């Protein structure tokens, strides 16, 4: 069966679940639309009560949800707990701010005779959320919190290796008091994506996933004339300039590359280090990686988790081999990882010059690309030599310089002197092959609403 829980640490198949039937999908669409017709006129205060309740449940039962995340995709238990708390913070953000973010806007007009123009933001219908496995809760909440707060309904197609995390959202939202039909997890089969997006009651799709998946889903949505937001892959640059605090930059690089076992769209995948500090940085980085301890993700002493599945580890290994065939040099760094479980040995990859196409690949796991930059301009050139444009980091002791370099990097997000990490009150999204659209804050809540102009004009005004 497509939907199954397989513990990445033990390899044990815990449970499996059948795909949804066509009839179940149609029932979900019918109930979502009926619920939406009522919910769209429900007050922001009532919607906020549900968001607040959902957050409280996540905080109360944090360990329960965290254990599910660790069981199904293998992340460190403490990282799972932080993800659950972040999810609660997102619910709380929209409970506090949704009404203000969507308040009507009076538009300035050049001539009073043009009328009294107002822009209102109205919900559109059912949003399909297609979400990945690397953040079982956060990825879902950053869609359902804003979209439910805006007055829409949401149907979820979660990753096939997270069936229990996906089902937990049905329980969570029901306990939080969300009316039946407004949210539903569907173990949807592949043909169901087109079935859902072709339904006139569905207003669009929000996808987080691979570049390949984005191409397919965006194509289906486009053919159906439906709005889509795409958060796809990334190969974020982590730039260390010649005036950076090298020791701190190296420590952050270890964390930025290896949290969630390196399976993060905004991981620090490409370390771009100024020539003047390159050797010092690399030595410190290797020391930091060597200190990581791979093991049971439920053990507090573990600092490097297994990958999400054995298939993910095998695919990454094949990708590294192909990069080496193209001329990449690969060095094993860090302590040996356990043979049991879907672990992947940390690697340092270099010799990724203009002749090696592997410099344009995303390595989803603990494989670090390292580049030596001649100077600031060269670092910017290397950073922008990527088909991706999600995030990035710049390390320097001169904040003005950092901001200048950040503006020159062609991505959706840049952080100075820190690895990029999602927050409840900051936007998320990229450009180029990393996708389009934004999630979180006001940008996210306005992705699937109708920005309607209402203009009151004097009946005797000139045409």
UniProtKB/TrEMBL annotation:
Signal peptide: none annotated. SUPFAM superfamilies: ALDH-like (SSF53720). Residues 3-453 form the Aldehyde dehydrogenase domain. It comes from the Bacteria. The keyword Oxidoreductase applies. Gene3D superfamilies: Aldehyde Dehydrogenase, Chain A, domain 1, Aldehyde Dehydrogenase, Chain A, domain 2. GO terms for molecular function: aldehyde dehydrogenase [NAD(P)+] activity; succinate-semialdehyde dehydrogenase (NAD+) activity. InterPro entries: Ald_DH/histidinol_DH, Ald_DH_C, Ald_DH_N, Aldehyde_DH_dom, ALDH_GabD1-like, GABD/Sad-like. Keywords: NADP, Oxidoreductase. It holds the Pfam family Aldedh. PANTHER family: SUCCINATE SEMIALDEHYDE DEHYDROGENASE [NAD(P)+] SAD, SUCCINATE-SEMIALDEHYDE DEHYDROGENASE [NADP(+)]. Belongs to the aldehyde dehydrogenase family. This is NAD-dependent succinate-semialdehyde dehydrogenase. It comes from Acetobacter vaccinii.
